[in-house]
Every structure is written in structure tokens, then in C-alpha cells.
Design goal:
With 414 residues, the protein is of the alpha/beta class. The chain folds into 2 domains: 154 residues, FAD/NAD(P)-binding domain, CATH 3.50.50; 213 residues, 2-Layer Sandwich (D-Amino Acid Oxidase, Chain A, domain 2). Helix content is 30%, strand content 25%. Helix 6 crosses helix 12. The chain binds flavin-adenine dinucleotide.
Amino acid sequence: MIQPVPTTRSRALVIGAGIVGLSCAFFLRRTGHDVTILDRDPNGDRASLGNAGAIAQPEVMPIAAPGIVSKLPRYLLDPLGPLYIQLGYAWRLWPYLSRFLRAANNRQYAASAESMGSLLVTAFDDHGTIHQETGLGHLLSKDGHLWVYRSPAVRDALPDWKIRERQGLACTFLNRDDLVSEEPALGPMAACAVRTNDWATYVDPKAYVMGLMTHLREQGVAFQDCNVGTLDGDTVTGTDGRRYPFEHLVIAAGAWSHRLTEQLGDWCPLETERGYNTTIPSPGISLNRMLTFAEDHFVATPMSMGLRIGGAVEFAGLKTPPNFNRSKALLELAAKYLPELNVDGGTEWMGHRPSTPDSLPVIDRASRYSNVFYAFGHGHLGLTGSATTGRLIAALVRGEEASLDLTPFRIGRF
Ligand SMILES: Cc1cc2nc3c(=O)[nH]c(=O)nc-3n(C[C@H](O)[C@H](O)[C@H](O)COP(=O)(O)OP(=O)(O)OC[C@H]3O[C@@H](n4cnc5c(N)ncnc54)[C@H](O)[C@@H]3O)c2cc1C
């Protein structure tokens, strides 16, 4: 089954027209491959269209933090809280949850943060490569970011900052007066903040995705509507029976990827962390940059179409309808920090983050097929890590050595 690694241009298929699949297609096309992207719904259910827009290089800390186990019971009792497992779904979550709980220790936490840091260190350069050729750089706002605190809990974050500082990421502490002069819309609830400049935001993530699709079409990349049903080492078959032979295949199907890798003999405890937001067209206030409300686990991003308030982690699988009471609960929280916020007229959204127990994506070659590659599982950081993942996958397809050690990102680690 193992096929030789060609070094010349080849016919490459990418499954998934989310930001990760598009970025893989971009770097593959750039190095001369004939690329076709298959997606069952190119304009539909994709985390990439409605996210918070951040290129968040410092967000290297995994979700499985050492203290999280003691907080879980409190979280689980609150269906609108920051982390919720739907009761009927809990038993299906065990393959993920058991590994998540095992990863929630100091050693694994620091190791995952180091690995994520090694992946994201070139995030801005790799997005820059895409901007240079697509002209989409104007969508990126480079105003930095603030973690806003309502209590001295900011001290709890100091160990995380030590890890980030080792990765060359800098931060500044702002007291209440400094904070309000930077963000006058914040009310008395905001006590202090930590500022980072290693952060930027796309002011319209959907426009970025659509702009990249347009560019790829102009470069000769083909898009096919195809709900992938089965696959092996040389052909993908749609549920309508159409067959797509390939020389190289990249699986970048977001939260649905594990269903495809399983057919190739590679199991992965991939889950979806469902996240929610509301985009308010006339919020009545303005923010100068993206804010994360650290203790209440939500974010506010100023975007070209309004203010987007979002967050939440909900484990309820891929088929359960959205519970938009979550979006409403986040707006209520936001109004506490931003007293002049007008929450009327917002558009609610839910997206499926593709998540692994250790918060690290899978960037790898299939164990049985050397011409099949995996690019999924980026969780909260798929937009941030997309361009680097695309560059690394293109290098693997060319048979080159990757620019960083990909061992922590192997599918076999589970
Ligand atoms: C509320 C929220 C806020 C977020 N904020 C940020 C942020 O600020 N910064 C950041 O970096 N990340 C953020 N993320 C995470 C980010 O959005 C995701 O990690 C990223 O979009 C995942 O991209 P993807 O291409 O892997 O998956 P997707 O965008 O989900 O794309 C997967 C594609 O695969 C297709 N597909 C699946 N199965 C098949 C099949 N069998 N046949 C054909 N096609 C198939 C789907 O139709 C879909 O188009 C956020 C996510 C959420 C939910």
C-alpha cells in the first residue's frame, strides 16, 4: 500500500473548504499541484465562517488545564455556563473525556503549550504569505488584544505568562485607569487587564474565507460539491457514487475528519466543542481591539459588520440543534462589563470547533497510505493555525522535511 513520495506536481484532492482546507490548497497550488477541493456544502456548516476572527499567537495554553477537574462539577450543573456536556451525550464523550482528564496535569499542560507555541510562532508570517498573493491583508486589524479581569485573579495567569515569555511573547499589565483610557466603553466591573500585541483580528472571517476561495478559483483550483462517503489510498467516492481518483489527498474536514480517517485505519478521539456568538450591527459603543473577559470566558471582537460577542464550550455532538439561549447568556454577561452596550438586532451563530483532548491539531501522514495527509483538530485556534498548517502539509506532500518537529501532532499519539 505504501506509495513513493513524488517530488513533482501531482493531482491533489483536499476534503474540506474550511479555512484549514483552503490554506492547504493555497500552499499546494503555489508549489504547482493541480488541486481540487471537495466539500458537501461550500457555503454551509463551517466553523471558519463565523468565528471570533483572532490570530491569537499567545493562546497556546490547552483547555485541559491542571485545575479544571475540580471545576467540572460546577460547570456541568449550569447548561448556560462556560463548559457544558449535554446529559444524553456524556457517554459518547468518554473516549475524548478520558484522554482530556489524563492530559489535565502540569507536565502535559506545559508540553502541549510548548508544542502549540512551536506551531504558532510563524502564524503571522504564514498568513502574510497568503495576504501577499491574495491581497486580503486589509482584512487584518493589528491592534493587539486585552485580557480583562474583574478581580485580582490576573495573578492566577502568571504561570501561563511565564510559559509564553519563554516563547518570546510579551505582555503588559494595565491597572484600571490605564485600561479605561484604552477602552472607555468598559464599566466599573473591569478592574485591570493584560495587554499583548502578538495578536491580530480579521474584521470579517467570512470575507477572508470567501476571498481565499475566489483567489484559488482564479489560480485554477477546482471546487466540487461532494459529500464524501468512502475513501481508500487512491480514490474518494461521494455518497452520490461519483469517484475522484487522486495522487495525493488531504483530509481537512474539520469536526467530521475522524469519520474519514477511520476508513484508512487511523482512529482519533476528535470531538466538537460547539461555540456560540451574536454579531450586533449597532452596538452603541466602540472597542479599539478584541477583548477576552478572562474569568467569564467570553470575547468581544470589533468587526466590520458590528460587534461580535461569543464563546462557550458545549459538548453535544454534531447533530443536536443549537441552543441559542447560550448566545443570549453571553450577551447578558457582556452588558455587565459594557454598560452602554445595545444588544438589539444581533445575529446568532453556532459553530463546531474540531477538538482533540490535548488541544493540539493533527498534522500528519496517514499510517497506511503515504500519499494521504491529515490537517484537522485545531479547536479554538483553527484560523490562527490554518496558514502554517497549509505550509507544513504542502511540504509533507512534496516529501520535504517539515520546518518543525511534528511528533506532538501525530494521529498515533492517541
Ligand atoms: C465561536 C467560535 C469562535 C472561534 N474563534 C476563533 C478565533 O478567534 N481564532 C481562531 O483561530 N479560531 C477560532 N475558532 C476556531 C476556528 O473557527 C476553527 O478551528 C476552524 O474554523 C476550523 O476550520 P476547519 O477548516 O478545520 O473546519 P471547518 O471550517 O468546519 O470546515 C470543514 C469543512 O469540511 C466539510 N466536510 C466535512 N465532512 C465532509 C464530507 N464527508 N464530505 C465533504 N465535505 C465535508 C464541511 O462541509 C466544512 O466545510 C472559533 C470557533 C468557534 C466555534
